[in-house]
Amino acid sequence: MSTIAGPIAEPREGELGDKAPHPDPQSPPDTHPRPSLQAPGASQAADEGPAPEEIRVPVLKNVDRAVTGLITGVPPLLLVLAGWQLWNRELHWRDIAIFVVMYVPIGLGVTVGFHRLLTHRSFKTSAWMRGLLGVLGTMAVEGPVISWVADHRKHHAYSDRLGDPHSPHVDHGGGFSGALRGLAHAHVGWLFNHSQRGARERFAPDLIADPVISFIDATFVLWSLVGLAIPFGLGVLIGGTVDAGLEAMLWGGAVRIFVLHHVTYSINSLCHFFGRRRFATGDHSRNLLWLAPLSFGEAWHNNHHAFPTSAMHGLGRREIDFSGILISALERVGLVWDVQRISPDRQAARSLQG
Ligand SMILES: [Zn+2]
Ligand SMILES: [Zn+2]
Predict the structure, then answer these.
(1) pLDDT tens-digit readout, 136-149
(2) What is the secondary structure of 289-330 as a DSSP string?
(3) Given CB 3.0 to 4.6 Å as the disulfide criterion, which of 144, 146, 183, 354 pairs with 220?
């Protein structure tokens, strides 16, 4: 199925995290930081690329491609319909409101749930909260949660090297056309080219063993449909007609899926290509300011590669990070705990700004 990003269980400070055993003992972490990169199951000889058992090959490759094509291709087609509505000024404010009401919690389900909690374990929470965040993230239709996490952990284990599922920098040739090919692969091409997907058993055994997450993973289609039924129901409720429901499903479903997909894809493509580097990392990750608000803070991607277990991706006062703000708020009311933060000293030690 189509999945999106994917990182590794980045460990807690003092456990696996930034002090994780490095494949090359000659390289001090500050000059060649691949800290968090020892994903469960990642090959020790990381520079040689992944072992075959680290790569997931879909059972039905062409069926997988067809489903991914449908999930990726239908929302942009429906966007034409939405554009026509806009052009004819037939768009209702309720549709915009329903778009926002769907986009925000589902987006946070991906960033706070899939990414910061389930992939990197940057905080702890209860089973029901894990379930809620997992369900919300699944409604983004970015693939079953365990596949998403396995791919993203493999991305951190092999960032911008052979084995990275979606690097714009590996094997795409040089020059302008190589750059374009790399960006296209990192954005959506990797969803169809199955050569470097993360094996679930190797990269996410903890989630396979988690009954709550395994259930949500197995019921991916159900939650994807619930994510369409909710805007339909809201539209009927507010607008009073089935047409109002369909219109709300167009904006709260198709348009919302399209925007969130491409914001997520942009973290994989643009945030390894454009933007500023604040920290020394062994990859091409970058901080892309303009993408930070829409991605709820995920665009502080160089910060994230420098400190993968940090619950906060925005590390400076001006680096707005809505996901981090939400985690802090949930911590204050006792719904999450053991929130991982990076001390100013550790940040300074990795900083490129002297
Ligand atoms: Zn990550
Ligand atoms: Zn990355």
Answers:
(1) 999 999 999 999 99
(2) GGGTTTTTTTTBHHHHHHSTT-S-S--STT---HHHHHHHHH
(3) 144
| pTM of the entire predicted model | 0.82
Rounded distance from Cα 156 to ligand 2 centre (Å): 7
pLDDT above 90 for 222: yes
| Torsion of the alpha carbons at 331, 292, 270 and 2, rounded to the nearest 10 | 50
Domain boundaries, the chain: 70-277
Reference 68, options 193, 214, 172, 186; nearest CA is 193
Output DSSP code: residue 86: H
Q: Please list the residues that pair with 55 across neighbouring strands.
A: 198
Ligand number, closest to the Cα atom of 298: 1
Distance CA 264, CA 248 (A): 23
Nearest ligand for residue 120 CA: 1
pLDDT over threshold 70, residue 170? yes
Q: DSSP secondary-structure letter at 288?
A: -
Distance 299 CA to ligand 2 centre (A): 10
* Cα(258) to centroid(ligand 2), Å: 21
CA of 80 to the centre of ligand 2 (A): 31
* Nearest ligand, CA 36: 1
Ligand 2 centroid–CA 82 distance in Å is 32
Tokens linked to 96: 């915009």
H/E element, 223: helix 220-239
Ligand closest to the CA atom of residue 152: 1
Nearest ligand, CA 118: 1
Q: Which ligand approaches the C-alpha of residue 272 most closely?
A: 2
pLDDT digits (tens, 9 = 90+) for 6-40: 334 333 333 333 333 333 333 333 323 333 434 44
